[in-house]
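Dear Dr. H.,

I hope your travels went smoothly. While you were away I took the liberty of generating a structure for the chain from your last submission, since the lab meeting agenda had it listed for discussion. I wanted you to have the full record in hand beforehand rather than looking at slides cold. The sequence, exactly as received, is reproduced here:
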Amino acid sequence: MAARSIKPVPWSTRAALVEDVIRNVARINSSEGVRLVRGSHIVTKRLFDHDRCYFFQGSDGRIIFAIPYEQDFTLIGTTDKDHTGAPKDVHCTDEEQDYLLAFASQYFAKPVTRDDVVWTYSGVRPLYNDGAKSATAATRDYVLSLDTTGAPLLNVFGGKITTYRRLAESALAKLTPYFPQAKPAWTARVTLPGGDFPHDGVAALTAKLAAQFPFLTPYHAGRMIRAYGTEAFTILGKAGTAEALGEDFGATLTEAEVRWLMTREYATTAADVVWRRSKLGLRLTADQITRLDRFMADAASRAISPAAE
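The corresponding predicted structure, in token form, is as follows:
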């Protein structure tokens, strides 16, 4: 199949959104595009002691949730605001934080205040721009648009991590006429790495890990299983003591786990480890995170393989 002839253009600091590719790279005359919608969240001290979540209906017609989070916290979200800046510059605004606090406070016996907030974060959803009047009303469904004016070009609008496998199968279905040798859809029942255990088997697997590595605290064993499933056993390897896991960065984060993340999950900075691969940043101090950053930078600069020895 011949490649579509496209002329690259400088990206500067703008996001490489799908409409940029359609209009400015592939030079297709199309009105389709995405609508950037910001969803902000707040993480508070734990507000209730059970493991169930709440959904609250607001006077503005919206719904928010309050979910048990990382064992000792509560996650409250989310907002829906049109985002006009660069996606990388997203953050939870004071207005959004106050909105979520006031919303949740209508339902909890004790008001939720700024003093309860330990962290905030935001994400940008690249939703299909269906012309809805508000960010809340914009469709959450992904849209696949196949352009065949030249070599087939499949444009994907929207989508999210919780449905990425279904999206991928839908995308391949669109392209099957051009790739008749493609395999049939197969991902629906295939486990993710480390997920090869019964869905109700977390407690049993945690107990097995704790028995095999008795130096782990209950929190440490539970966190490893929640994060890595059966791969937790491989990460810990043949360690017979806590010291055998290497440097201790705090909050049960050890050198063995960091090396695994660098090798298997492409972590390159402390932020990758403590925020993007875990939420241990909620428990680590600034000094501990700085020390982790130095360790990872040193390993990279000396071209040391981060694979576990």
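Two observations you may find useful: The domain at 202-301 is CATH 1.10.8.870 (Helicase, Ruva Protein; domain 3). The radius of gyration is 23 Å.

With kind regards,
E. W.
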